[in-house]
Amino acid sequence: LGEFGLIKRIRSRSLMRHARVLLGIGDDAAVLRPSSHHTLLTTDLLIESVHFDFSLSSPRQIGAKAVLVNASDIAAMGGTPQTVLVSLAVPGPTPVKQVDKLYTGIIEACHEVGADLVGGDTAASPGPTFINVTMTGVVPSGCEIRRSGGNPGDLLYVTGTLGDSRAGLSILQSARKGRHRSFEQYLIRRHLRPIPRIAEGAILAKTRSASAMIDLSDGLSSDVIHLCEESDTGVRIDISRIPVSEQFSAWCRRTRRKPGSEAIRGGEDYELLFSVRPRHEAKIEKWIRTGGLSATRIGFLTGRKSGFKILDERGRLLPLREEGFSHF
Ligand SMILES: [Mg+2]
After folding, report:
1. 123, β-bridge pairs
2. Could you report the per-residue pLDDT of 211-263, keeping only the tens digit for each?
3. What separation in Å is there between the alpha carbon of 194 and the centre of ligand 1?
4. What are phi and psi of 183, to 5 degrees?
5. What is the pLDDT of residues 281-303, one digit of tens each?
6. With the C-alpha atoms ordered 173, 174, 175, 179, is the resulting torsion angle positive or negative?
7. How far is the CA of 146 from the centre of ligand 1 (A)?
8. How far is the CA of 246 from the centre of ligand 1 (A)?
9. What SS3 string covers the chain?
10. Using CB atoms within 10 A of its CB, is residue 97 exposed (0-12), middle (13-18) or buried (19+)?
């Protein structure tokens, strides 16, 4: 294939779907038309052995995930992905075929989230592989949902289910021989292939229904504190309300883990955590009932002085810590 062949191949597969993109791969820089919407920019650096491991996932899966996690950050602002730039540093002797597989994953995920790959760079690394993805997105002017907009009394919701990715990683790391059971396969897929909640974020932004929002990358227990610190509030989370999948529950039973404390610690869930003013509660609850929004209410924001609290399975109010919570 060769290096030039590779670039040609990437170029031919990176569709220009957005009218705003005047020029993509192939020149010194990409060209975008101005937009009446606000532009969002985000970037993420992934380092081999720190953020991903070629022994646990394929180059194609790693490439896809690098794009999907950026799309989750765009979704967390209420935006829609538009363009992507990728910089790649791979160890000198890496075969072109391996790089091509990374790009296959990158391009697949770009299509999945509706973004155009408009440029990037590739270099030789003296150490591990580095993947840097930069993504732009758009949001209706003034509708972006910040972390800082929460108020005491706002209700707290989360999309999807929590803990699946953490369980999937744990299953991959345990390197058990033989075929995985179907619930294990589900959890592994949830770890390797996050689903950025773009539609959910966009509807919340367009209708100005959420006061604050963040996507869960570190885990609920730490990311909720990031939202509260920016909003200058406390929080109370009811652990019995945290949504988990039946596959996750099965894994917890098998490994004798407590679902609540596992799910709240989570990690790489890439679900959206958002707060809602009481006057929007009825609307949100109706969307949830009618299937327009997959989300669960898990608690509410409080005054800063009330601190970060969790109501455990036995009805005790315990302090929430970044790494979860502790029974004392
Ligand atoms: Mg984020």
Report:
1. 89
2. 999 999 999 999 999 999 999 999 999 999 999 999 999 999 999 999 999 99
3. 13
4. -70, -30
5. 999 999 999 999 999 999 999 99
6. negative
7. 11
8. 26
9. CHHHHHHHHHHHHCCCCCCCEEECCCCCCCEECCCCCEEEEEEEEEEECCCECCCCCCHHHHHHHHHHHHHHHHHCCCCEEEEEEEEEEEECCCCHHHHHHHHHHHHHHHHHHCCEEEEEEEEEECCCCEEEEEEEEEECCCCCCCHHHCCCCCEEEEECCCCHHHHHHHHHHHCCCCCCCHHHHHHHHHHHCCCCCHHHHHHHHHCCCCCEEEECCCCHHHHHHHHHHHHCEEEEEEHHHCCCCHHHHHHHHHCCCCHHHHHHHCCCCCCEEEEECHHHHHHHHHHHHCCCCCEEEEEEEEEHHHCEEEECCCCCEEEEECCEECCC
10. exposed
Burial tier of 254 (Cβ tally within 10 Å: 0-12, 13-18, 19+): exposed
Nearest to 138 by CA among 210, 82, 200: 82
216 in Cβ contact with 165 (< 8 Å): no
Ligand 1 mean position, distance from CA 2 (Å) = 36
Q: How far is the CA of 217 from the centre of ligand 1 (A)?
A: 6
- CA atoms of 299 and 224, how far apart (whole Å): 11
Nearest to 118 by CA among 145, 150, 83, 152: 83
Amino acid at the residue 266: G
Express each pLDDT in 260-285 by its tens digit: 999 999 899 999 999 999 999 999 99
Half-sphere exposure for 125 (CA within 13 Å, toward CB): 16
CA distance 116 to 219: 29
What spacing in Å lies between the alpha carbon of 318 and ligand 1's midpoint? Answer: 26
